[in-house]
């Protein structure tokens, strides 16, 4: 089950009422995503994986289709991080269905805020609207809460070993 833990401003924009409780079985490492809006031009959805802290950027519009467009964007970013196609397909198969929830993990929210700031700085400094390029740069930022040096390095471990970190 794919879970989007959304900020209030995003829930209001997509017109979804958050579920009151988590339903379904969790996938492996890439099933829980913290999601917000970046008010850049064009507006972007910033998604941060709860387990790996992997940042993913995708166009916000059309807001109502965010959940259905997400798997294709996830496949693209995993491919850019060097994942094999069979491994990507395996991960995506586990993300059957989706659910919108309110944010719950304050640590991930703080990291999401850091990514939002860094994305804006990168976009302006490099004069780039390439969301994949920005996301790859964000994935190299080192955070203390994870065992590995960056989300990018943690993804490499998961892909290589097929490990479930939960």
From TrEMBL:
InterPro entries: DUF6933. Pfam families: DUF6933. Residues 4-153 form the DUF6933 domain. This is DUF6933 domain-containing protein.
